[in-house]
Write a structure and sequence with these properties.
alpha/beta; TIM Barrel; about 35% helix; globular
Length: about 325
Amino acid sequence: MTKQLNTIPRVGFGLWKVPKEECADAVYNAIKLGYRHLDSACDYGNELQVGEGIKRAIDDGLCTRDELWITSKLWNTYHAKEHVEIALQKSLDDLQLDYLDLYLIHFPIAQKYVPIDVRYPPEWIFDPSSENPTMQRAPVPLCETWAAMEVVCKKGLAKQIGICNYNSGLLHDLMSYAEIKPAMLQIESHPYLTQQRLIRLAKDYGLDVTAFSPLGALSYLELDMAGASESILEQDVVISVAKRLNKTPAQVVLRWGIQRGNAIIPKTSKVERLKENISIFDFELSQAEMAAIDELNINRRFNDPGDFCEAAFNTFNPIYD
């Protein structure tokens, strides 16, 4: 029986940037602590290790497969209709799974195909060994990719399908032709980027929403994509609420995320942080506190291909205006 999307746990374990050497243990520890939602992707380069952690947890009786919610994502180089199922099957093989609960288009960006046996994960750069490596686009329309996503859904390889990093225009367009409607929109969202209009539109269309980078700048400091002064956790309103509730600033911000009605996928490989991040169900923020944190919005996006593709891959490729 297909799981209903409203059963997706509100707090998941985001696996972006979790080092391979730590990943299997981190997944195992997360499941042991009570996590049942794991957010993975081809591009993260650690799905083999995620699969090892899942298998060990199931073998040790910590959970059953049916109790887990596993998400993965289609990378940009596999957007052509003949490559979508191949890419999904590779993720399934690495994760040691027969199906995904949710498969998402990672970015509304089609890149030139890189065969799995040539380089995996293919990442953003098409020709990394060249003198001037670049990202190279492919002329694949998103409607073609979505039709192929529908095929893998009908085959039961993915119970639900959805999208990441779409804007409102792309969402309107998708809803005009989708035979199987997207179940989920995953976007960057935190108090500096509340995305209220896009989230409202998605929910009007019947999609659930998952917020990645729910703590804002933290994941981007080591990538030089954010400054230390941009920490949401040092905002006076967040610190004040944390003191009132005897919680950490991170717990307050994560609680704000789920109290908006979204799922969130914070990232860490440290056991104490894993425990802290999931311990947000024994308190609530007042309406006034929610509104005060909403007011921190400055439309600050940390994960923007329009910035990092040009800086790192010599290709100007904005997807947000």
